[in-house]
């Protein structure tokens, strides 16, 4: 009887721990998706990073978490997708869709798509289920409790892990931060909650990533067509 009680207590404790860790559940879903056919991209010219997330087109209950890539035949989109896939060890089909989503959000809200992608790179390394100890979630690390009004029109707080919703809401937050901050650099600092940093390290990091993407596009335009 004592053994049965001990097993019951251990089982209860394990279940409780899992239920209190939503990220663990989401991570399990992503892991299953990877094992079921996501294709990791290996960049043999780069050093492997243990912190990098390798994702394909993640599916949950048979539904893709990414919509179809917008204008996927655009050569600039393809160039960016290949660059991001190799740099962040993310499957190419996922980065193609994220590049399309960033351009869609940027065009809709009047924000440079490269800036949106740079924020995603710094905030989550393109991990759609990233979650911080402060409660920031998804690709652009949106904190639902501070932006419930923006999430409501997309279905509420649970929609924060939907990639397109996260990108749209994150872009709206970024645009508002730039307006309140009075410019790009202070806006980025506000977005990160790092407005007390006189060195603007967060903003510098985002801008550096954006410039790397710009250089990648520039090099691709200089290359002769086959």
Number of E-type strands: 2
Just give the CATH class.
Answer: Mainly Alpha
- State the CATH topology: Lysozyme
What spatial order of strands do you see in the largest sheet?
1-2
Element pattern in H and E: HHEEHHHHHHH
Which shape, going by the Cα principal axes? Answer: globular
Head-to-tail CA distance between termini: 76 Å
* Major sheet characteristics: 2 strands, antiparallel
Give the second-level CATH assignment, the architecture.
Orthogonal Bundle
* Helix/strand structural class: mainly alpha
Q: Which segments are poorly predicted (pLDDT under 50) over 5 or more consecutive residues?
A: 1-65
What share of the residues does DSSP label as strand, in percent? Answer: under 5%
The protein's oligomeric status is single chain
Mean pLDDT across all amino acids: 75
**What Rg do the Cα atoms give?**
19 Å
Percent of residues in helices comes to 55-70%
Total helix count?
Answer: 9
The figure for the number of domains is 1
């Amino acid at each position: 009887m004592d053994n049965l009680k001990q097993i019951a207590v251990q089982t209860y404790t394990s279940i409780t721990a899992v239920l209190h860790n939503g990220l663990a559940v989401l991570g399990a879903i992503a892991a299953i998706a990877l094992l079921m056919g996501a294709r990791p991209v290996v960049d043999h010219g780069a050093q492997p990073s243990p912190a990098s997330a390798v994702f394909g087109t993640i599916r949950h209950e048979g539904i893709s978490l990414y919509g179809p890539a917008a204008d996927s035949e655009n050569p600039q989109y393809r160039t960016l997708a290949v660059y991001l896939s190799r740099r962040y060890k993310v499957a190419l089909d996922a980065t193609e869709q994220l590049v399309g989503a960033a351009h869609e959000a940027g065009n809709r809200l009047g924000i440079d798509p490269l800036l949106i992608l740079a924020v995603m790179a710094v905030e989550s390394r393109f991990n759609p289920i990233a979650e911080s100890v402060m409660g920031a979630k998804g690709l652009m690390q949106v904190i639902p409790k501070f932006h419930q009004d923006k999430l409501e029109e997309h279905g509420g707080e649970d929609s924060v892990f939907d990639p397109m919703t996260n990108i749209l809401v994150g872009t709206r937050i970024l645009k508002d931060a730039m307006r309140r901050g009075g410019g790009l650099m202070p806006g980025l600092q506000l977005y990160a909650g790092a407005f007390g940093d006189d060195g603007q390290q967060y903003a510098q990091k985002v801008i550096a990533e954006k410039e790397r993407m710009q250089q990648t596009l520039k090099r691709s335009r200089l290359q002769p067509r086959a």
